Here is the input.
Amino acid sequence: MRTDFPDPDYYATDFPRSQTAVYKEEAIIGNGAYGTVYKARDINNPSDYVALKKVRIPLNEDGVPVSILREISLIRQLDKFQHPNIVRFLDVCHGPRHGGESNFTLFLVFEYVERDLAKFIQITPKDELTSKIKNILFQILCGVDFLHSQRIIHRDLKPQNLLISRSGQVKLADFGLAKIYDFTMRLTSVVVTLWYRSPEVLLGSSYGSPLDLWAVGCIFAELYRRKALFPGESERDQLEKIFDVIGTPSDEEWPSEARVLPQSFTPRICRNWDLVVPGICPLGKDLLSRLLVFNPRDRITAKDALQHAFFEGLSVPPIEFRKTLSPSSEPSQPHRDQEVHLPKLARIFQ
Here is the structure.
């Protein structure tokens, strides 16, 4: 995992590729959950572009924080399947140390996709966008279903974290908040951008994979509306906007561990979806109502959503597992003065 830095704008590595790859930043794409993302050019192949996620990492007494190891291990695990709706992970590079060697920079290299879904919604004419909604949503659900089949919840689905190529291929990106789900994991409420945050998260109750389906429902509605369905300004306001549309849940539906009581909200009934999401067809309306269900146990799963009549004629793509690197392709060791626990990292990333 030898690194070489010709100047501060270039970053190089020979892991996991067989030859040294050098990248040059050209523009900022956006800010992810834990870093800034840049469009960068592959100097060895000038016509090729990548997306560089630049993360400044504080070192602790054990080396690199576990959260960073978790994200990189997770995306490498996903990349073994090369799912068409998951952004490809190409490389990992480490940069120089900062602040008296208490910090260093890590670069995660992904395939470059032209735009995110938020930008696509802005620039695409209404009629053209409406004609593409079914295909876009199907691809999103394919990606989410794949994640959930691997016991992974994304926890930050939103248009800015969904990429769409010029050919119309949709890819889930930014796994900075993603986590492998199990029944003993410690849950945190700091997940999902506010506008796409599910009621169970807002209320501080337990959550699992259904939170991703709530976010998918919000995105589905946004594709028709061309603006956010629930643009709350605070957690309380977010709940108010949700209940304005789906109605106030009954006392029996209210989670016992919620941080607030149901009496805190004015009773409301469910609004007509035709008025909330103009232009949506009857089958789309049925699917949307199954995604935006208050009780996560009653929310439709990604697998079942893909079988909904709204997607008649579309089929889920087959997925094949790609073998990991062989021992003969193990990366070379870094220079001793740049180790930063990288031999340990290399073994974990394999």
About this structure: The chain has a mean pLDDT of 81.
